[in-house]
Amino acid sequence: MLAAEFRQRFLLQTAAKAGAILHSDQHQAAVLIPIIDYGDKLHVLFTQRALHLRHHPGQISFPGGRIEAGESSCTAALREAHEEIGLAPNAVELLGRLPLQSTSTGFTIAPWIGLLQPQRSWLLQADEVAGIFEVPLTHFLQQENRHQFSLRLRGKVQQLHAMPYQDKFIWGATAAILHRLCLQIA
Fold it and tell me: Biological process GO terms, please (predicted)?
């Protein structure tokens, strides 16, 4: 899938689905789903969280974090991507937002989709990010690479998404957000 087709498919579905409101009793966060346009292919960029972090240490995620007081979710996603991986906000073509994603840890995440050109280098914030990697978007578009499993968390059985890729195990909210994106552009 090329960037023009991705953009068209995403934009056709976005307007009706992005109107959810963040609830004040939950921790509010925003993430950027960076889609890198290599011309003939698209890749999704992920971060691996540092092991010493209080929330989700070592897990695979998208650049993002808490929404600060008075800040929009869009601004937060771009700010966090700049802080965590050195991605300049003006290097991102924001396409829109996917529906809000709740987590079992009480967060509500606003996921923003952004197209960008390949970057010369990344500037990782070592306090938050242990590493980054890319996966071809086509990997996730294949249904056989998207899985669900049940897990008992905090006294409840929950359905979680998982999307393994090579030696990486993408699961939880990150995989659920990616699953929604795949359904939207399919």
Answer: nucleoside diphosphate metabolic process
List the one residue out of 75, 88, 77 whose CA is nearest residue 177: 77
Question: Considering only CA atoms, which of 128, 135, 137, 28 is closest in space to residue 82?
Answer: 128
Q: What is the pLDDT of residue 21?
A: 44
Q: Yes or no: say if 58 and 49 are a contact pair by the CB < 8 Å rule.
A: yes
Six-digit token string for 112: 């923003």
- Torsion angle of the four alpha carbons 117, 123, 127, 133, in this order, in degrees rounded to the nearest 10: 50
Q: What is the pLDDT of residue 16?
A: 40
Q: Which residues 6+ apart lie within 8 Å of 156 measured at CB?
A: 104
Q: 73-93 burial, b for 16+ CB within 10 Å, e for fewer? A: bbebbbbbbbbbbbbeeebbe
**In CATH, what number does 3-144 get?**
3.90.79.10
pTM of the model: 0.87
Mean pLDDT of each 10-residue bin along the chain, 186 residues long: 85 52 68 97 92 71 92 94 96 93 85 95 90 96 90 79 92 93 90
